[in-house]
Amino acid sequence: MTPSEKSIAKSLIVVAWADGKYEAPEESMIDALLWAFGASEAEEAELREFASKKRKLKDDIPFDDLNADDRQLLLAHAALLTHADGKQTKAEVKVLDTLIELLGFPEEAARPIIDKAAERATKLAEKLRG
């Protein structure tokens, strides 16, 4: 994994914890992302250890390690993650709003990223129901 990929993975783990729990749907998506990023066994173990403790958006996302492209990728993946269990709750929408603010995105820049992720999540859910 590149340092950027590790920072994005850590950040998504933090997003997954935003509702106070880190459970199967989110954990499965993080596992898939680790596979896609080519994480080594040691990196997987490190990130699973990181995920074993409750995390908070403001405290645990490595903002300083994320460049502009990383921030867009993080927001897109975070939006997908909020649909991991097939529905997006009001709390998850609030998490995304907070993340947008913390990442420094203006609403007009963030909205297309989130809308595209929601569209992809809907298509994936339809495909899985197939």
Notable characteristics:
globular; single chain; mainly alpha; 72% helix; 130 residues; 7 helices
Mean pLDDT: 90
Percent of residues in β-strands:
under 5%
Distance between the termini: 33 Å
Q: Sketch the major β-sheet.
A: none
Write the layout of secondary structure elements.
Layout: H1 3-16, H2 24-36, H3 41-51, H4 57-60, H5 68-81, H6 90-103, H7 107-129
Give an overview in words.
- With 130 residues, the chain is mainly alpha-helical.
- It is built from seven helices and no strands.
- The chain has helices at residues 3-16, 24-36, 41-51, 57-60, 68-81, 90-103, 107-129.
- Helix 1 runs parallel beside helix 5 and helix 5 (68-81) packs antiparallel against helix 6 (90-103).
- It is globular.
Condensed summary:
With 130 residues, the protein is mainly α.
